[in-house]
Amino acid sequence: MVFNTIILLLFAVSIPLWAGRFLALSTLDPRAREIFQRLVRTKESPVAFAARMFVLLVALSGTLLILVYGMSYLQTGRLLHASYGEVMSNRLYSGVEGVDNTLDTAFYGLPLPITVLMKCLFLTAAFTLALKATNDLSIILRLRGKIKRLVRPSTGPAGGKSRSA
């Protein structure tokens, strides 16, 4: 349930972040947009980051599943063959019959390892979306600040008067 909440929150947060990213990017002049594109190309690809994160999450959950299945085998002498709904007693119900039936079929009826893999995939996607938008916004804001400092008229040591006068 906690991971479901985290996944939904990350997806919900990523929507305004991406809207802000597009708005901030649209306010940049074409030269600054070109600089932004070059800066983004030098960073790690979001797909590569998501793949690394997914592998890490799968490794962590695989270790946890081995621990759970091992403890179950040591306790009962047989491997646990349960669906996600049998292991997790708390269910998320929306109150709409069609949605609840779909949730039962999509999540709670699947074997536990498949459900864990799906949650890792959704968590990776949500986290990557939120983090990529946040990173791009940070780059855009820093780029704007540097451009403002470059464009700002500089005053000389005599309060704006040039020496040639």
What this model shows, in words?
This protein is mainly α and 165 residues long. The chain is 76% helix and 0% strand. Keywords: Membrane, Transmembrane, Transmembrane helix. The chain crosses the membrane at residues 6-28, 49-71, 110-131.
Which labels suit this protein?
elongated; mainly alpha; 165 residues
In short:
This protein is mainly α and 165 residues long. It has 6 helices and no strands. It has one domain.
Mean pLDDT: 81
Taking the sheet with the most strands, its summary is: none
Give the strand content: under 5%
Separation, N- and C-terminal Cα atoms: 73 Å
Q: What share of the residues lie within helices? A: over 70%
What is the ordering of alpha helices and beta strands?
A: HHHHHH
Set out the fold topology.
Elements: H1 2-27, H2 30-42, H3 46-76, H4 84-87, H5 97-108, H6 112-151
Helix pairs in contact: 1-6, 2-6, 3-6
